[in-house]
Design goal:
Blueprint (H helix, E strand, L loop, with lengths): L14 H21 L79 H9 L1 E2 L12 H11 L4 H6 L3 E9 L5 E8 L5 H10 L7 E3 L2 E13 L3
């Protein structure tokens, strides 16, 4: 039988070369194996921090309220009247030193006021009394009377004048209104109209001091408004 294998394809003559190549590869693998370094594994845990916002309680500031010092007492000046030694002083007060519980005491008789003193009280005008004068029907009736009876002056309308006229007057002991005057006016005929309306008022309930009717000074604003 004829051999079909080509002599060029015969690898038997190349066995030595393959052996050397295998030895070189084996030695290289051994060298790499000996030189190979290993390290211990270190596990690193990554932690996260959370910041909490803690609200701080605000402490109220204590306010110390210092009371103002009391006002200094006013010095009272005592006026001393020097009496001449030659003037005799009438002493009508009789003091019974030997009086006891059984001693009778005379009833006190109030001094009678003279006509001059009574007339002086009648003329006196009070600013503030225990019971102030009252318009018939009260304050609401007073302002209703002013609104219904007060006529706006034509001059004030044309000039655009408006405001309050302050009028003062005296409420007599019988309730009549006298001495009507303007304390502060606005002009344009409003002052005269306010005086006219006040003078035309009905009788008031008079003011009283200690249960007795007296003359009282009264101030009243009369309002003029353009509509």
């Amino acid at each position: 039988m004829e051999e079909k294998k080509s002599p060029k394809a015969d690898l038997e003559n190349k066995r030595f070369i393959f052996r050397q190549i295998g030895l070189v590869i084996g030695l290289a693998l051994m060298l790499v194996a000996f030189e190979w370094k290993t390290y211990e594994k270190i596990v690193v845990e990554v932690t996260s921090r959370q910041v909490e916002n803690v609200s701080e309680d605000l402490i109220p500031i204590t306010e110390q309220k210092v009371k103002p010092p009391p006002p200094a007492p006013t010095k009272q000046v005592v006026k001393i009247n020097i009496v001449d030694d030659n003037i005799t002083v009438d002493d009508d007060i009789n003091i019974d030193v030997e009086a006891d519980q059984n001693t009778e005491v005379e009833a006190y008789v109030a001094p009678v006021k003279s006509e001059e003193e009574e007339s002086a009280e009648e003329v006196q005008i009070f600013m503030v009394v225990e019971s102030m004068p009252v318009f018939p029907g009260g304050e609401a009736a007073l302002y209703k009377y002013l609104n219904e009876n007060c006529k706006y002056p034509q001059m004030a309308k044309e000039s655009g004048i408006q405001g309050r006229v302050f009028v003062t007057f005296v409420v007599e002991r019988d309730g009549s209104v006298t001495d009507v005057r303007v304390l502060r006016g606005i002009g344009g005929g409003c002052d005269e109209e306010a005086v006219r309306v006040v003078q035309s008022m009905a009788r008031w309930t008079p003011g009283k001091q200690r249960g007795k009717a007296v003359r009282v000074q009264y101030n009243l604003p009369v309002k003029f408004t353009l509509q």
